[in-house]
Design brief:
The chain contains ten helices and ten strands. It is an alpha+beta fold and 248 residues long. β6 and β7 form a beta hairpin. α7 packs antiparallel against α8. The model has no long low-confidence stretch (mean pLDDT 90). This is Autophagy protein 5.
Length: 248
């Protein structure tokens, strides 16, 4: 069930992003271009983004009201970067264009300093579904910190030295979030087996009424893919499988 190459490739996958400063900055500043990992979160890399802009003041770099938008919509940057890209763009639109805003922070977004607690809260929620919270609650605070810091610093081996404990085969339910067209997100409570004691697959749990593109990590997924394999190999660092369903 474990596939090291899939885990490694999803960790290393990157997206080219063009960052433009919005109308909050009155003088002209050239865009900044970065390659960012799909498994990262914008709040963890936003300082690096700002450092790539030239001719902006230190006051701008240190603002607490920074946020991001795409096509006029605030980006829910507590989602992984890969999920946001798959929701708002696609492979035909590269580099992905994102606008940096410096004023009027939207009420519906989380502050970047809240990212650590929110991430660990999501991991705990995922483990509650998988193991009734027994594994994450037995971990030490140092392990929680290492789990988060390894994402912030891009250390695959450090991350999996802790995360592997959350990936045993004694899973009760599969943590899965599905984003349907028009960005309607549903969190499903799905067991490994259906009522006929057959392995649950994407096809059996999504129950789509027509043909869609079903994507995770930018990869089209066969509907026959078992959920257990996805949970162990293609979950994002928060331990949820994030599935994007798009019109063909």
């Amino acid at each position: 069930m474990d596939d090291y190459e899939v885990r490694r490739n999803t960790w290393e996958a990157t997206i080219p992003i063009e960052f433009k400063l919005g109308p909050d900055i009155v003088h002209s500043v050239k865009p900044a271009f970065l390659m960012l990992k799909r498994v990262e979160y914008f709040p963890l890399v936003i300082n690096k983004v700002l450092q790539n802009f030239t001719n902006i003041s230190s006051t701008v770099r240190e603002t607490e009201d920074i946020w991001l938008e795409c096509n006029g919509q605030p980006l829910k940057w507590h989602y992984p970067i890969g999920v946001l890209y798959d929701l708002h763009s696609g492979p035909e639109q590269l580099p992905w264009s994102v606008t940096v805003r410096l004023k009027a922070f939207p009420d519906e977004l989380v502050r970047k300093e809240e990212m650590r607690n929110l991430f660990l809260q999501n991991v705990k929620e995922a483990d509650q579904l998988k193991h009734r919270g027994n594994i994450i609650s037995d971990m030490k605070a140092e392990e929680h910190n290492k789990l988060f810091e390894s994402i912030a610093q891009g250390r695959f081996d450090d991350f999996w030295s802790i995360n592997s404990k959350l990936m045993d085969e004694n899973i009760i339910n599969v943590p899965i979030k599905v984003y349907f067209p028009r960005q309607i997100m549903k969190q499903l409570l799905i067991g490994l087996k259906n009522d006929e004691n057959e392995d649950n697959t994407l096809e059996k749990v999504l129950e789509l009424d027509k043909e869609y593109n079903v994507i995770s990590h930018g990869v089209p997924l066969p509907l026959q893919t078992p959920l257990l394999w996805l949970a162990r190999n293609m979950a994002y660092p928060d331990n949820f499988i994030h599935i994007i369903v798009k019109d063909k």
